[in-house]
């Protein structure tokens, strides 16, 4: 379990409970960055095929990476109350490691709100893309531990996940 | 770890390793269904706010559900090698339970390929939508255990996850 | 006010009130057609400019028509509980008439559900496109009387609006 | 009928009549807001079902609201000559009232053009979503009186519809 | 110049010149395939970098291929009068060859219309993606000779381009 | 062949060859413009039909123009490593000329990166739209010579293609 913070409520909802896209007009335009991670858990032999075995050109990893980058750009189309943001940079690492593939996405913008959702969307779309590739050989794969690990910029300042976070 | 199966390779790739959208023209058009689940892990007080506290109209859960249904329809736009499919039905449950919110999506089609990816996409987009709502009050939330739990229809027949799956 | 019919409930919602995309797997694949209409109300001098005055190539009407056709194809992206449908034909008429521009869209599919929503979306997107063109010269324009006027195909059979409909 | 204003032409078209997306590079970046309204006209018993009757969680209204918010973000994808805009806030009210459901959308941006089209698109997509829910029980519903009621920001200054507008 | 054929008119337009999406309801659902090609012309040193030089993982080619596959799925969103089609397979080759990169896309469907436009869209989006990668090192690159080279299925039967086509 | 320039590498890729969306946060926001051209090559009788013959309202050219403008707005959805940009203006010329139709697109933005890709996408989508219209009467049409002809704004300054470019 994680530590409570001071924020009193869910700003995506009005006092009457109705969903809204929060007005951010008054927020400063600053450079903001967020990093999210996630893990696709499967079998070692499947990870091996993704990493080196039968895919000489490495297109499995490239496909996941491209899908994640494109997914980041679609965030506000997918998440109803997200603001559209001018994403200024995305990097995604897709790293095979034993029985898992680790996915890390860092997104940067110069805008009025943070890019946590964009980083999380990049990770999940990259993860779903890997899932799609391997589901014929492992129906039991799991996409797991999708979380923000660091953010910077904006009024709330820098933040990074402590080592004993909720998803550990 | 999960059990290996007999499928020899990753059909999304050619012998030379290049990504492709596999030709499914010769597959039968049958009714197919898949169910996926996932969990958003946060704090009990946050789950409480989502479920009943300050949201009299229940729009947090409704927003996640609607986002998941719309996400299912965008699957082939997001996952590069997925076939576009005429989705014929989607149901999503978003159930607050202590420190977590459990998400279950069932998707049905009458088509040439299964709808596992559509069910997984529905779960992840619903989960990201919840994440977006609560990130101001819990930066450390985690979307986890996203997995297919059952599928039916198609040549490979019915399947359901055993109770000791990889993501448990 | 219109006549009540016999249908007992709103099928887009479950007994517990949750939204869903209704399962249409068991419905027949038949050819279905729907026609919708709508009216953009402005000033006669504005309609005149749209129709003939300063636009020798007629691109205002063509732009609205193209937008409507493309809008019809986006219906299931916009309306959350709509099924994606393989639209097989669209025709749109955009007819200047005094102080109004009349819009009529007919959409056809061979599928499991009707295309009323596609016809309505075509009309509204065409109407919004006209609104966009003229808003600099008439802030007070109104898009009005958007309604289905006829449908055919499917189990419920043919239907057409009586002359004294609700929106008259 | 509404009052003519001084603007001489339709700026979306060149002197030769060709459609274009008007260059707004030289316009100031300011905070701009627009409010649009519309009405879905059906039967009192249908409105009653939407509002309270069989939908305990209120997901019909929430679904329309979410669809409207997401629709606002798709405006420049739908309306050919609209500029893409960084929407900074959206609020939508969906209010059952006798035989009608009243829809009001307010959209805000900090950009180079106004957000009337975004507000109108939010209203129409919310209205189409309601139409979709009830079309099985009222084929004769009408989406009507879709119009801008107020705008502020930008060079042309504040404006609000007089009580005897064209759509009244 | 190519040989005239017997088709009397442009079916995308009515007798009055208005654009429409042609009704294909009466056409047979058959398996259809189309292959299109195109060429990105740049400098040999740039092609070399794409192919082998500084890109050990080959992600430039993979990126173009993935973009092309995803582009094929967006065809009916981009080309106004195209019918949405259930694409059943896509293969794309991206082959560096001296001063050019050759792109070939083959698309298959089981539907009521052909997939020439999907194959052409796949080629152009893959080509634009390559262009984007190299524009910093070669502003003068050209995407050229984009054309259908073969199609099969449907009433009009098989066709392939003769060696002395218009674009040679 | 074109002249080599000084840029040492392909910035869309990291040292390890992985694709990324380059971070442009540090670049200046300036007004930038790019013009691209392309040619659809067909037969003179087909061009004649497009231009005047059977299409009194000129909707073939208008349809291509509208598709190109809308395509420009979709660039970052189609080209994986493109940054989303607030396009501030688009003009497209579609000019029948003998056996060809010449397409020219000029796009303007106030942003952190150039709009060459947006101009190229506008040209190709307009070209594909024309191709779609005429493919029933000329299977052998070719979309060719798609290239940037001029750009201005940004750090690299103004540039225009010399008369003996690679695609001539």
UniProtKB/TrEMBL annotation, chains A, B, C, D, E, F:
Molybdopterin cofactor biosynthesis C (MoaC) domain span: 21-154
Pfam families linked: MoaC
Complex and partners: Homohexamer; trimer of dimers.
Keywords: Lyase, Molybdenum cofactor biosynthesis
Annotated family: Belongs to the MoaC family.
Residues that coordinate or bind substrate: 81-83, 117-118
Keyword Membrane: no
Gene3D superfamilies: Molybdopterin cofactor biosynthesis C (MoaC) domain (3.30.70.640)
Lineage: Bacteria, Bacillati, Actinomycetota, Actinomycetes, Micrococcales
Described purpose of this protein according to its UniProt entry: Catalyzes the conversion of (8S)-3',8-cyclo-7,8-dihydroguanosine 5'-triphosphate to cyclic pyranopterin monophosphate (cPMP).
Catalytic reactions on record: (8S)-3',8-cyclo-7,8-dihydroguanosine 5'-triphosphate = cyclic pyranopterin phosphate + diphosphate
Protein name: Cyclic pyranopterin monophosphate synthase
Enzyme Commission no: 4.6.1.17
Active-site residues, record numbering mapped to chain: 132
Native organism: Isoptericola hypogeus
Keyword Metal-binding part of the UniProt annotation: no
PANTHER family membership: CYCLIC PYRANOPTERIN MONOPHOSPHATE SYNTHASE, MOLYBDOPTERIN COFACTOR SYNTHESIS PROTEIN A
InterPro entries from the UniProt entry: MoaC, MoaC_bact/euk, MoaC_sf, MoCo_biosynth_MoaA/MoaC, Mopterin_CF_biosynth-C_dom
Pathway(s) this gene product operates in, as recorded in its UniProt entry: Cofactor biosynthesis; molybdopterin biosynthesis
NCBIfam families linked: moaC, PRK09364.1
SUPFAM superfamilies: Molybdenum cofactor biosynthesis protein C, MoaC
